[in-house]
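Possible race condition, two jobs.
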Amino acid sequence: MSKRERAGGAAKKAVALQYGEGDMAPVIVASGMGYLAEKIVETAADHGVPIYEDNSLATVLTQLELGQEIPENLYQAIVEIYVYFLQFEPDLDQTKSKPQGEDSHDKKADISSVGQ
């Protein structure tokens, strides 16, 4: 336990999700707390990956294993985040559905969820 946690403050948490062709749901590709969380956020920002801050969601997602798909009970929360980014930052649209046969197979979306 860190000094910050003992003092009553929670360590920063971050989770990176990736949703690619063939995935039934977004997959946890990075997860961490404290310094590791800061590095996840820094790396996401450096690569233009959108970052969404939600402490409750980050807390739940950090309980999952790397490579694990998000559980069905979190689908709605994740969809709302994707929709949020698409509404306010249309250039980030990496997930637009295309009719079958129009190279929709090479699209993938990344997102990071952060919490304090």
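Job #2 (started ~2 s after job #1):
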Amino acid sequence: LFGLLRLLNVGVIGWLYFVSFLFGFFDTSIIMPTITVIEHSDEKKRLRNSNINFAIVLLTGVIGYFGAGVLGKSLGIFPTLVLSMILALVSIAPVFAFPNVKVSKKRKKKQSLTRTQRTMLIYYLLSGALVSLAAGVFINFGNVIFYDLFKFSTLAITTVLAVSQLSTAATSLFSHKLTAKYGYKLTLFLIYLGVTLLIFMMPLFTLNSFVFSVAYVLRYVLINISTPMYMVFCLSYLPKASLATYSGLSYFLNNVMRASSAQLFASLSKSGVTDYNKLFFVSGFFYLSNTLITLLAFYLMYKLSQNETTSSKELKKEENVREGRTYQRRYYFTYRRSKRTKNTKVSVHFHNTRLSRGRFNSGK
């Protein structure tokens, strides 16, 4: 609705800022399906279900890209934008199919995070912000890059973007098998490292439009299939009751970084000419920072998990020792009648509950 209102008075700057703010405010609801999938899926199917949801979003985006290219050329840009906002209103239809669930008003006690959880939360926020800052230039200005470097038409640009999303959708359906075989940590690290190398090599790829397009698609696929992995991996460590809060905070930081990337692009486009070599270097620097932070976070988590395992073992050992000392002090005796003779004899036997030598079984 606010996206449609934003198109009505484009010339009024104040109105445009106000409605755009409301549009972005309500657009944050897109994180809820992912959180719902994570909360209601078991550990084995969590990533697979998230990838299915992610693939559906990308496939519909492919249709949108092709539709935008065709309709934009035949109808014009403004009518196509109005039509897209009207179609977006259809997205509220599935909401009416949701069951009417009453939310309990009882407030649970505030949960304190462990060191591992705090490390994961910091990594979740920082990594998402760095990737958003690095990728924001390509996501927001991908069409500008293709036009400036190679003079691509609108149809050609939307075709490249559509192929990027279609490839990502197809790949994301099978990416959970990578984590099942190699683990989340190794898979994420290798993906981030591969994207970093691609970005630093982009100045070489600009010599050929086809090679650059292939590299763009590959970067798009890698960084986007890592998003469900990264979210499922990080949020699995955090308390379920706070997933929406942490996801909302991460989404806020990511959008702030995307806005900063727009300013970065503008600062590198002085006098209407963009220094793309410098742009690729700056973006690669942020990707490299994210890769190093990922490696550092995984190392810290490994050390913290070792310390927590050692502490739990020592605590359990101390509890066993205390129980043993208390248990050793308890002695019991029984008696039985001897049936060998007519005389009644009483045999008294002292039983120590431990095999260790005590007062009555010292062996003397």
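Residues 116-245+262-332 form a domain with the Growth Hormone; Chain: A; fold (CATH 1.20.1250.20).
Logs attached separately.
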